[in-house]
Amino acid sequence: MRGENVYRFKIFRYDPSERESGPYFQTYDVRVEPGLTVLMVLLRIRDEIDGTLAFRSSCRSAVCGSCAMVINGKIDLACRTQVSKFDEKTIILEPLPNLDIIKDLVVDMTPFWRMYERVKPYLIRKTPSPQKELPQSEEERKRIDQFVNCILCASCYSACPVVARDPEYLGPHAFAKLERFISDSRDERPLSDLLEFDNPHGLWGCDTVLKCIEACPKNVRPTDSIVNLRKRLIKLRLFGKDRK
Amino acid sequence: MIEHEVIIVGGGLAGLRAAVGLCEKYDVGLISKVYPLRSHSVAAQGGINASLGNHPEGRDDSWEKHMFDTVKGSDYLADQHAVEIMCKDAPRAIYELEHWGCPFSRFPDGSIAQRPFGGAGFPRTCYSADLTGHVLLHTLFERAISKRLKVYPEWYVFALVSDGITCHGVIAFDLLTGEIVPCAAKAVLFATGGYGRVYYYSTNALINTGSGIGIAYRAGVPLKDMEFVQFHPTGLVGTNILMTEACRGEGGYLINRLGERFMEKYAPIAMELAPRDIVSRSIQTEIEEGRGFDHPHGKYVLLDLRHLGEKKIMERLPGIRSICLDFLGIDPVYEPIPVMPCQHYSMGGIDTNEKCETALRNFFAAGECACVSVHGANRLGGNSLLETVVFGKIASESISEYLCGNEVKPDRGLLLEEKKRLEKKIERLMNGEGEKASKIQVELSKTMSEYVGIFRTEEQLKFALTKIMELKERYKNVKVSSRRRAFNYELTGALELEFMLDVAHTIALGAYLRKESRGAHFRRDWEKRDDKNWLKHTVFKFNEDGEPEVSYKDVIITRFEPVERVY
Lengths: 244, 567
Fold this sequence. Notes:
- Chain A is α+β, with helices and mostly antiparallel strands and 244 residues long.
- Chain A has helices at 38-49, 110-118, 138-143, 145-148, 155-159, 161-165, 172-182, 211-215, 222-239, and strands at 6-13, 24-31, 68-71, 74-77, 90-94, 101-103, 106-107.
- Helix content of chain A is 31%, strand content 14%.
- In chain A, helix 2 (110-118) runs parallel beside helix 7 (172-182) and helix 7 packs across helix 9 (222-239).
- In chain B, strands 1, 2, 6, 7, 8, 9 and 16 form a 7-stranded mixed beta sheet that branches.
- In chain B, a hairpin with a 4-residue loop joins strand 7 (155-162) and strand 8 (167-174).
- The N and C termini of chain B lie far apart (55 Å).
- Chains A and B meet through helix 1 and helix 3 of A and helix 3, helix 4, helix 10 and helix 13 of B.
């Protein structure tokens, strides 16, 4: 296939049941009309050219977090990436780094979820709730805004150099989630909960090189949460003060 | 074989809410074909209705007024006792979610913020910017994690096992291993969502194939009111991504090619905030009469937010702005948004009563896959999220009640037999040469969008039915080219297509038979609502020949006698 709008997709392929052949890149030529996203191309390839291609997808509108992958060397959601934004006509698709590959572009998210669960990612209350809503000012609500926006797509986790060298490192997503709750005016967890992460696999593991911020498709800044949590931890150590 | 006291299928809002209500008392397994946070609930934008009375202009709101708006919006087809349950319970449900951490937007006094929505007499839609589904789903998932709910992510359920009277469990396909796993349970809840992908132009996620509805139907559970399909007025041209009703709730205009705010012709009082069925028909009429714009992916009108100003757009509609920037390269602060009506919601579904019970003992359904019916012929914006959390909780209570009063023993033999049958079916699909399922799915969805759309005629519906029968015939020759079972999306797609064909068949048949116009079902050849003959629910049952058998049942009217609907 030749022509102006034909793009060459080089897609990472791997099937663990065919261990002897190992991973390789497969090439597909696809005609692309304006507005077509990388995800739409992948769907077209699976539907029309090669039914064996595996990748995750769901909302196709950048809110569900299924389709993060490496697109021409940069981590992003396939569904929100326009093919036409690239100058070159060759597009390379690879699975997220830092996670084991299950098949093609599908990675094993188990460690990602395990770390997420470790920070107790839910509102913790001690005092009984009123009959109505717990009051929260607009400003207090704003404080958690960017962290609420996290869609748990694992882009930050995959971009993180610390995760790459230390599989026991908690990861940027988990800290962003922890900060989302600790800085929520309604949450009543003791600040001493942070002591669990007062170590190199926890809050002190971060290199603060901001790779997570660069990778996040939803403008969340996990590094901010890590810096905030470190400050809280130091205050706790210095003054022994618990909670805000 | 896995075994749980309760198996919940679907990890969206309804499934998670039910699970949260059950998992401390019972051994619960939640099966979802995607990670629960990838469920389509996440995509809901505008909000969730409850008569909290927090808005300065909403102080006089009450559950009765919410109920009235819902019944009127439904074009009087909703069962009123069920609507009453939902609207009465709404404030409690909102406070519960808030206490569990849901980050609602706030008013200056610290109360939950509320905005106006279509078809509502008061501003009663609670929201979190335009990411309400996202925050609700995350909140309920967080709650489920705190209770250590057992989840089977990326397991696709493709059969409900029943002996005709009682349900014994489900059969699932473990995507990771490709294994077929019988799952025994004393009670099963389906919370599998809607069927948007049966339509070509749909706001729904790719996973919304409606196969849960089709699975229940094939197991002999009746479906209800399938002909009522909601078309959302404002889907983005090209991708059909939802542009929330909150755009209009916050004051956005709809504009045609002549620059007119055309809603004044169709709903002079409510204008852009008329219910969705009316706004969608108005847009479609403008387009058909030549006052729309052209685009390679469909004709459109404009949704203009510019006069709201950058600050309001950034604060209340940030998600809309990102979608427009990411997918169309336009900034709604400076440019109007090209929109067209797209399939959006399934009013019909698995026939349940107000306790989420179905005709099959110990089989329950809740959320969009179910039809209680609280939405009747047309759902109001903000009521679908409400339905999921109210009826998710009710489902958990009904199941709890059922398990307390009944000694149930799932028949493992029956489950193994069904597994064998399905093994053979998969072998058949994966052997030999034949047609690709995706090709049939495209033809099916195009047929539905074109012939079973916003405006319908007998001729079109007849054509659609013929086409669906032809596709059903062709389905028999579908083959899967990918021969390994693990992570074989082509295979799950082929399995789902069979259910999509059934679902489409009931939609088209119900629409063909209903000779009136009510809510979202509009017949060009029968333009009036006909309460004398058609104030009734359509019920579809899968008969021995594999065809839908249609019957009707009465609408339950408790408070509001049907009157003409004017906005």
